[in-house]
Automatic annotation (TrEMBL):
This is LexA regulated protein. Pfam families: RHH_1 (PF01402). Residues 51-89 form the Ribbon-helix-helix protein CopG domain. Gene3D superfamilies: Met repressor-like (1.10.1220.10). One of its GO terms (biological process) is regulation of DNA-templated transcription. Residues 1-20 have a biased composition (Basic and acidic residues). InterPro entries: Arc_rbn_hlx_hlx, CopG, Ribbon_hlx_hlx. It comes from Pseudoalteromonas rubra. Residues 1-29 are annotated as: Disordered.
Amino acid sequence: MAKSELDRTTIDLFENEKRPGRPKTNPLPREMQLKINKRNQIKRDRARGLKRVEFKISSELYQALSDMAEEQNISRSALIETILQEKLAINR
């Protein structure tokens, strides 16, 4: 059977063909990479003295915070921290 360059339905014929794109550089699966990256981020945050706070808000409030943070050219997290500091009058 002849191999047609246009036929991509028979993948076994093309398994040795080099595909464009970046080669795989990390031997771990993506799920494990994400877990390790998250763990390292938490360690860096702890070393900087940061504490994690999680809460749920409405999508309208979320969008308003995102828009305001973008206008001020800061992260949403930094904006929320600023608002809380102002409300509690704990300006550093």
